[in-house]
């Protein structure tokens, strides 16, 4: 992370995610799961048991997407990735943005992730188009000065969110 720009970090994660899939998987996913309420709720339900190993305990929650309440949200109670990295930049550049982009751009199923940097929880909302990075509150977070070994405590925003 230290030697890579924000864009390089995100591209590296995208390549790893794509490398884990068989050829043609994104196209098949788009056919099987067009961006409907059912697909969003189904993917939320799958996220809880299948990503527990990576992010920790989570649960499906009701969220509002385009004015409609649906059970397409996932609340990660305390994200293991964020807690173990202790780094806002790693959360945003190596999880939030690449995962959102992967589902939204590759699979055609919009996903927004809202990390809570106070309690280290995270809310995933299937069906919600993520905001542009420059409008995303996560892009304006300061470092965890006491947790992140590469933090700049005096900086108002985590330096890895600006490069």
Automatic annotation (TrEMBL):
- State any GO BP term from the record: abscisic acid homeostasis
GO terms assigned for molecular function:
carotenoid isomerase activity; iron ion binding
Which portions of this protein are annotated as coiled-coil regions?
none
> What Gene Ontology cellular-component terms does the record carry?
plastid
Q: Which residues form the Beta-carotene isomerase D27-like C-terminal domain?
A: 53-135
What is the protein name for this chain?
Beta-carotene isomerase D27-like C-terminal domain-containing protein
Q: From which source organism is this entry?
A: Oryza brachyantha
